[in-house]
Amino acid sequence: MRDFAAVAIIIAVIIVAFAAALTDGYYMDIFILTCFYGTLAVAWNLMAGLTGLMSLGHALFVGIGAYSVAWGYTAHQWSPLVTWPIGIGLSIAVAIVIGLLCFRYGLKGYFFAIATLACGEIAFFAVSATTALGRSDGIILPLAKNPELHLQFIAKWPYGLMIGSFLTLTLLAGQFLMRSRIGYYWRSLRDNEDAAEALGVNAMAMKVLSFAISAGVASVCGAFYAHYVAFVDPRSVLGVDISVQLLVYAIVGGMGLLWGPLVGAAVLVPFGMFLRNFSFLQGSEVIFYAVLLIGLALVLPQGVSGWVVGRIGKAKAAAELPS
Amino acid sequence: MNQLLQLEGVSKSFGGLRALHDVGFSVEAGEIFAIIGPNGAGKTTLFNCIAGAQKPTSGSIIFQERRIDGLRPHEICRSGLVRTFQIVKPFLGMTVADNVRVAAYVHERRNAGADAVARAMLKQVGLDDYADVGADELNIAQLRRLEIARAMATRPRMVLLDEMLAGLTATETEAICEELREIARQGVALVVVEHSIPVVSSLCSRAVVINFGEVMAHGATLDVIRDPRVQEAYLGKVEAVAWS
Fold it and tell me: Has residue B86 been placed in a domain?
């Protein structure tokens, strides 16, 4: 129950933040990007922190979602009702294929990370060379005749509502999974695969499931991004930058908990945008990220969320001690 | 036919190395059966073949009248045959109760039910006071008990115990032996790999001796360990037969 309480508090914070962001388009922009990266980081952590599968290729699924929308809309005027399922389905299918291949040959740890990184990079270069997908120039999504049906809004708050709701949904579903048989199986695989298999856990099926869910969520984020920015190019949705950013958010926020990476994103995304306000600090957020990452690795190896939960646990234990 | 587990002609080669050759024996329901043999004889390979971690090169392994050789470890576990590991493999990032809960999900899909099974199993092995602490806080004897609790939570007909008692004190050994006898009394067959002859002779009714990958002797424990060939292979040349 305590875990659900934590998620309930976080969802309350998301709602308050959304309400506060309604006052100003700039704040709404920060809110939207924080939710976008937060959702991605939570999905990534479902695999990495909770199943023990470190992916460095999640940009691939963001890209599949984004390009499904961009290509479907510009080439065929398909509505999101068509392009979103295509993106999600394609992402899940690709994740299952990559997963089956990697797990069949027992790729783990760094080897799995490198294999996923390679898949992401292959997609990056393949799309950069494909004329139908706009090559490295990308695709601009023009204004539709009936913009609302294509999720095109002048105001920013509908986008905030969309991504905020999706983040909330992801957290709730993720928390439900973590408290169910599947979540227990995932964590047992993370901690010791041999022991888990000997105790009846179908390792292959559970790992592929984790990969597929994570990829599906990432591709929804990518589809959302295409609508919000109305422009996709390989650099912004398929680049290795996204994959690495997720890693940074997860390490800063903490990988042991479902919502840990969200905390990382909530700290770093607004911070990065804040730094961009100062022209003499242009591009300096990378340096700040790096320093922060080194510092946190030394001081808080379980991340911010792990530290907070640890402090609460200690305070409780102290309160329960007989005086 | 109340043979629970039956091995016939099981062989396993790693390239040119013959780890097991034509191994055959059977285990009855509810008995405590020992696999003994010198270091490197192939006991752990035999174990891995039965539990599905390795696939035998040839031969058949029949459990509850069904061939299990070549099945995946999780399928063998679900058929009622579960193993423990010589080097304990706890889920260190989870609590003790959650460790057992993973195993309980084999038969209990509901969360509350799985948690109840886990806590009942922990009570049975005397770890109920530790249910909600992290598995990384247990000592080696407690981790061995945790392995037993996890194995029992899958509701097995047979448990394979790989050197469950290595490195424990005499008191800890006696306590765990008593628990194993209690488990056998509940009708669960136990197959143990064990080095300590006094433990084997007090615990196990029957035994098989493996030497250089082959069955050297098979039968009642006392007969087997009195066999001069076994004594020579397993213990070296002994002048006085201390165990008779």
Answer: no
